[in-house]
Structure formats: C-alpha cells, structure tokens
Automatic annotation (TrEMBL), chain A:
Keywords: Membrane, Transmembrane, Transmembrane helix. The chain crosses the membrane at residues 6-28, 40-59, 65-87. InterPro entries: PhaG_MnhG_YufB. One of its GO terms (molecular function) is sodium:proton antiporter activity. It comes from marine sediment metagenome. It holds the Pfam family PhaG_MnhG_YufB. This is Na+/H+ antiporter subunit G.
Length: 108, 162
C-alpha cells in the first residue's frame, strides 16, 4: 500500500514540475504583461498544487500541505488580478496585435 | 457570529498547521485566534450563518470538481499555446456582466475566471461589469462573452453564496 502511495506521490511531483516549467516557458515566450500573467498564474498555481499534493502523499499524509493548497488557490488569482489592474491603470499597453480593449474604450 | 466563525476557522487552521494536541501549543493558538477574530471579524464574509447550510455545502462539493476540471483544461490550453511554434493567440480585453451581488461571490467568480481557460479578470466595477483579458478573443459582444466565460460558474456560485 505505502509503495503505491509513494509512486503516486512521485508522479504528482513530476507532473507539477512539468506544469511549472510550462508556466515559465509561457512567461518567456508570450508578448505582453497580461498574457504572461495568464500563463504564469494558471500553470504555476496548478503546478504548485500538484507538487504540494505530492508532498502530502510522500511525507506520510502531511495535512498542512492541503491547507497550503487551499491558500494558494485563494490568493494566487487575487494577486494576478491586482497586478493586471495595476498594470492597466498605470497605462501599460496591450500587445500591438491585440483585438480589442473594452476597458480603455470605456475609460474615455 | 461572524467573529465566532472566523475564530473557529483560524483555530482549525492552527491545529492543522501544528498537527499536535500538546496543550501549550493549543492555548497559544486559541489566544491568537481570539485576537484575529476580534480584529478582523468585521471584514469577514457578510452572512456568516450561511456556513452551516447543508445545501450550500453540497453545491460547494459539486463546485470543487467542476473547478478542478476547468483548471486542468486551462493548463493544457496554456501548454498548447505556449509550445506551438506560431504562438496562436489573439488577446484582448472584453467586458462581461455578472448578476451576482454578494461580495464574496464576486471574489470567487473573479478568481475562478482567472484560473480557467484563456481568461484573466482585470477589473470589476461596482455595478456588476467585469473586464476580462481573453487570450483568444472569440466575440466582443457583452452578452455572448458572458455566456461563454462566466455562465457555467455563475449558476453554481449563486447557489453557494447568494
């Protein structure tokens, strides 16, 4: 039983690391701050949750990592929202190939 | 009431974090949670008695797998866009309208939008409009965008929080 749990925990660690890596690739490749926030928030949140769940399984059911998952899921999107709003308020432009900017239109 | 609920929640968090029944540790946790409850009880959720309604908890249990599914979908979506050589994105900020009125529900909705495929909430106005950054804009119409982005969460969140 514990062998299976260990293997599943390691799989969770590897998948989480892969998602974190994808988030970082997105951070480098995507063009402007909003797209980068999208990639990094989504992938890093889920990747970190997977790593924490792997830790939960590997270290004999450490419940505080579940608590950490709850807090990350609540706080990370809020932080991204704050950064995006601050970026738009301070006048950072969208990528030049962007289709529409309703927020700027409504501000005028 | 609010303060009591907040105190219980913070004390439970403390117990999970320390994971011991050693008495001095529990006493420290109790004192700290009482202080937290007295200080921050007023800025906590508006109607704390809703925590104990079975129907809301059941909808919350239904919401968690739904949210996890869309979260996983979002990650594969980002993976596809990031690893594709041509970078298939068409970003833009669109406007959607939500009918939720409760503050907690709005926060939960904005957070859900940020973690689901291709969308990131940028600004929320007091009269219920939400500006959403969409990595692949499919429509600029308010009604259609509302249908596509938030309808699936709004129904469940309304049952949980309103």
């Amino acid at each position: 039983m514990s062998e299976i749990v260990l293997v599943i925990g390691k799989i969770f660690l590897i998948v989480g690391l892969a998602f974190d890596l994808l988030g970082c690739i997105g951070l480098v490749r995507l063009p402007d701050v909003y797209n980068r926030l999208q990639a990094s928030t989504k992938c890093v949140t889920l990747g970190t949750c997977f790593i924490l769940f792997g830790t939960f399984l590997l270290s004999d059911f450490l419940w505080k990592s579940i608590l950490a998952i709850v807090f990350i899921v609540m706080s990370s999107p809020t932080g991204a929202h704050a950064i995006a709003h601050a970026a738009h308020r301070s006048g950072i432009k969208l990528w030049e190939k962007s289709v529409v900017d309703k927020l700027k239109e409504d501000k005028k | 009431m609010k303060k009591l609920v907040l105190g219980i929640i913070s004390f439970l968090c403390w117990m999970v974090l320390t994971w011991t029944l050693y008495l001095p540790s529990l006493l420290v946790g109790l004192v700290v949670s009482v202080f937290i409850a007295l200080w921050f009880g007023d800025v906590f959720v508006e109607r704390a008695k809703n925590f104990f309604q079975i129907k809301r908890l059941a909808y919350l249990l239904y919401y968690i797998p739904l949210f996890t599914y869309y979260c996983l979908l979002a990650n594969f979506d980002v993976a596809y866009r990031v690893l594709h050589p041509a970078l298939p994105i068409e970003p833009g900020i669109v406007k959607v309208k939500t009918t939720l009125t409760n503050t907690t529900a709005k926060v939960a909705l904005a957070n859900s939008i940020t973690l689901t495929p291709g969308t990131l909430s940028v600004k929320m106005t007091d009269d219920g409009y939400l500006y959403v950054h969409w990595i692949k804009v499919r429509t600029t119409d308010v009604e259609e965008a509302t249908e596509m982005i938030i309808r699936k969460f709004e129904k469940v969140l309304k049952e949980i929080f309103e």
